[in-house]
Design a protein that fits this description.
With 148 residues, the chain is of the alpha/beta class. It has eight helices and six strands; from the N terminus they run αβαββααααβαββα. β4, α7 and β5 form a beta-alpha-beta unit. The radius of gyration is 17 Å and the shape is globular. The mean pLDDT is 88.
Length: 148
Amino acid sequence: MQAAQMAEEYPVVDLDSDALDAARLLAERRLPGLVVVDPSGCPHSVLPASQVVRFLVPSYVQDDPSLAGVLTESLADRAAGKLAGTKVRRLIGDETPELPAVRADDTLIEVAALMARLHCPLVAVMDGKTLIGVITASRLLELALATG
């Protein structure tokens, strides 16, 4: 099966989208991540939901998780305040990782290999420079188990 046949329509955000809106989209639709597009509409990167969560947790708690138990402020209280007015580009950071993208004619195994190598929950399916859809890890597993 080719990637184009596995691809599904999927929401995207741009680099200058509001991070709070992106987080709400991730939460409301229970998405593993979002494709982030540049100003021309071409895929730029993937923003995993885990990266948004990481942004919400103070660095000193990431360095010493035992501190999480003594914090009185809830994550929910922090989330809106920290994300409001922040652009998606800030969540991605300065060092943009490799775009997890496959060609429309790539196979299920090629898609799986890229997801595994990049530890990414979704890949963009491209026809040249055009995004034709997304394959999530759960969709890939569904298809792999159906054919196995």
